[in-house]
Design a protein that fits this description.
The protein is of the alpha+beta class. It has a single domain, classed as Alpha-Beta Plaits. It has three helices and four strands. Strands 2-3-1-4 form a four-stranded antiparallel β-sheet. Strand 2 and strand 3 form a beta hairpin. The termini are far apart.
């Protein structure tokens, strides 16, 4: 499994066109083979963090090369982002816990 940490801050120019493109990419990635999930967070200072999980490097590479995603990358650098930083890491170990539901 591969995890992506995408930190960013939007510019003042990232308006409705950003919101529309973001919603479109959300729909596309949910249907993308190998996408295991993602979560986004917003800090008080405006910095954003999106964490995404992919099955492997191959499925991540396919997402990176998706035409609408390539367009978002270009437009992000031109207009939407003050900055972004991305870390890609392979998960070497994972553990899980889920509390059992207690019947009422």
């Amino acid at each position: 499994m591969v995890v992506i940490l995408f930190r960013s801050r939007l510019t003042a120019e990232a308006g409705q066109d950003y919101q529309d493109h973001d919603a479109e990419l959300e729909r596309l990635v949910l249907g993308h083979s190998g996408h295991l999930g993602h979560k986004s967070y917003l800090a008080a200072d405006g910095e954003r963090l999106t964490v995404a999980w992919f099955k492997d490097q191959e499925t991540l590479r396919a997402w990176k090369m998706e035409p609408r995603h390539l367009e978002a990358q270009r437009r992000g650098r031109e207009r939407w982002y003050e900055f972004y930083e991305m870390d890609v890491a392979e998960v070497i170990r994972s553990s899980h816990f889920k509390r059992p539901e207690v019947p009422e």
